Amino acid sequence: MKKILVLATGGTIVSTVQQNGLAPGLSLNELAHYFTDHHQPDTAISFKILMNKDSTNMQPEDWLTIARAIQANCDKFDGFIITHGTDTMAYTAAGLSYLLHGIDKTVVITGSQIPVSFKKTDAKKNIKDALIFAANSDLPGVFIVFDGKAILGTRAIKMRTKSYDAFKSVNFPYIASISDGKITVDYRPQLESIPFQSKMDLCPDVFLLKAFPGLPPQFFDFISEHTKGLIIESFGNGGLPFEQRDLVSGVQKLVQSGLPVIITTQCLEEGQNMALYEVGKKVAEAGGITAGDMNTEAIVAKLMWILANTSNPAEIKRRLQTPVAHDLSYV
Fold first, then answer.
1. Which residue ranges of the chain lie beneath pLDDT 50?
2. CATH number of the domain encompassing residue 18
3. Is-catalytic flag, 43?
4. Which of 128, 138, 220, 263: CA 20 to 30 A from 151?
């Protein structure tokens, strides 16, 4: 008998029409009703409500609440399903991938684009698929199950605001497909061992900056006073301007002050190569840390996790560029 624990956190899946628009409103018993409709053979389902939030309101502290609930119940259950809003689902999936790194149980995050109580909803299919995957896949780690696909927690990005196929696996194969009650595993990730110790904690004092033509270098003065780490979504292969509005000098100033500056790209696919162009080489020479083909959601969560464990610049770089939960193929 497989034992599955469903942890409810809110989101569209349990939303109802309220005075100011859709907001989480279904009770845990009402949500549980839809799970029992898709009960799997030889599977016992338990339920617990952790919070009742629109995922826009989810914070890193909430990731810790979810991770600790899973950790506390890890010996009692064979798998876990988290019902969650879609807007920040990818951030939560990445955060849990680091906080629960090395877990030997299946952790599934799912939700819906349309509330479960609505006539035309994708929630019922996603609930059924999540149950099938959690009970039968025997794959360890954190996954998003949505629209018949299983995506690794560190590789998911929300691409669409309305369509059922809201999420995409970026720079990594889809893990599995679920159809007609059956799982087809396309890629089987292996458990990793990482060359450093970590505690279950997060430092949310990071800033994400999207570069754009005209960005004033003076902005870096604010960053140095209010954050412990900066992530820059650069242009193309990792380039930033060094003429007129010189952002490269701003990166160098931050790095010299001991603040880590992580460089990623605004392009969703194929990652970056900072050695290819002069505009990228200058960023690397200034001390910018390349993030290879990691996605932004994973970088944000990983940097928070790293900063909670070390403030040493060299160690921050080493940990950021060490693959964890298959978040990184190259740097």
1. none
2. 3.40.50.1170
3. no
4. 263
